[in-house]
Amino acid sequence: MDLGTIRGFKTRFHLYTVPGQVYYNASRKLILKGVDGIVFVADSQVERMEANIESMQNLYDNMSEYGYDLTRLPFVIQYNKRDLPNASPVKDLQAALNPGWLLANPDRQRVTPDPNWSGDYLVWQLPTGEWIERAPTYEGVAITGDGVFETLKAVSKLVLKSLG
């Protein structure tokens, strides 16, 4: 995907997709080498929750093997298949896949409302004083394209911001 010139640089994104099933681990690992940003696409169906959790853990493990910290990379989550009647509530998906991580960088320790979820936060402070951050999330219906561009735009902005 060619984005033209940004700040004097020709900007181009190489997008790769890998299957979610953990038995594709070798392919997933290969594609993660040198990655600048990640979109994790979760299947919203209730019966896919355990597979989503397993795939998310596999992503964290693979990133760690390369010496990457997923909490420090441009990272966005899309909850796909939101149109299905057996879609898990977003709150359940958030609790299982995106509960947040400790935020040590004092420059980012400020309450940040989540623009996609009224009343939720991307960064917040616990009563105990620790700061928590979570990945931005988007709803999607891939077969109709709903939410797909918004997700891509979000991770693209984060990648460009991280490089600048």
Q: Write down the CATH topology of the largest domain.
A: Rossmann fold
Can you give the helix content as a percent range? 25-40%
Proportion of β residues? 15-25%
Estimate nothing, just give the exact number of structural domains.
2
CATH level 4 superfamily of the largest domain: P-loop containing nucleotide triphosphate hydrolases
Low-confidence stretches: none
Overall body shape: globular
The largest β sheet comes out as: 4 strands, antiparallel
* Strand order in the sheet with the most strands: 5-8-7-6
Number of strands: 9
Order of helices and strands: EEHEHEHEEEEEH
| Gap from first CA to last CA | 19 Å
Helix tally equals 4
Oligomer: single chain
Rg calc: 16 Å
What average pLDDT do the residues reach? Answer: 90
Structural class: alpha/beta
Going by CATH, the architecture of the largest domain would be 3-Layer(aba) Sandwich
What CATH first level of the largest domain would be assigned?
Answer: Alpha Beta
Brief write-up:
30% of the residues lie in helices and 22% in strands. The chain is of the alpha/beta class and 164 residues long. It has two domains: 2-98 and 135-163, Rossmann fold (3-Layer(aba) Sandwich); 100-134, no CATH class.
Question: How would you describe this protein?
Answer:
- It is a single chain.
- The longest helix has 17 residues, at 49-65.
- The chain has 164 residues and is an alpha/beta fold.
- The chain is built from four helices and nine strands; from the N terminus they run ββαβαβαβββββα.
- The protein has a four-stranded antiparallel β-sheet with strand order 5-8-7-6, with no helix packed on it. It has a three-stranded parallel β-sheet with strand order 3-4-9, with helices on both faces. A two-stranded antiparallel sheet has the order 1-2.
- The chain is 30% helix and 22% strand.
- It has two domains: 2-98 and 135-163, Rossmann fold; 100-134, no CATH class.
